[in-house]
Amino acid sequence: MRPIRKTTLALATLTLLLAGCGTEAGNGKGGGGDSVSPSSPTSTPTATGCTTRSELGATDSGDTVCLAVGDTIRISLDGTRNRPWKPVTVDGSGLEATNSGIVLLPGDASSAYKAVSAGQVRLSSQRPLCATEAGQVSCKGIQEWRVTVLVT
Question: Could you say which of 32, 37, 80, 91 has the lowest number of CB atoms within 10 Å?
C-alpha cells in the first residue's frame, strides 16, 4: 500500500470510531450504551403533566415527577467503572436525603429522598459519554441526567 492510502484508511477508521462514540440508541432520554437503569413500571400520569413514581433510573431523564409530602423516591443509576455516574445533586427545596441502601458496583449512583414540604427540586447527575481507558480512543462528551420533582 502506498503511504497516502494508509493515511486515508487510518483517518477513515478514526472518524468512524469517533462518530460511534457519541451515538446512542433508544428513546433519546439518556439510555443506550452500556448498563442503564430501566424506567419504573409504577408511573401514573397526573393532571399536571407529571407522573407519580417511587423509583427513578437513567431512562427517566427529563421527566417531571410529582410527590406528596411523606412520599419517598429512590434513584438508581447503573454505571460502569469506565463510565461512572457522579453522585446525584439536589437543587431546590422540598426533599430531604434518606438512606438509599448500599451501592455495590463501581460507577453506580444511588440515592433516596423523602418529600418533607411543598416545593420544586431538580435532581441531576452526569457521566462520561464514552469509556475512559488509558491508551484507547475516547471523547469528551457527557451524558446528563436530570429530573424535576414537584412536592405538593
Answer: 91
Lowest mean pLDDT among 5-14, 19-28, 57-66, 100-109: 19-28
pTM more than 0.70 = no
Query: What are phi and psi for residue 20, nearest 5 degrees?
Result: -70, -25
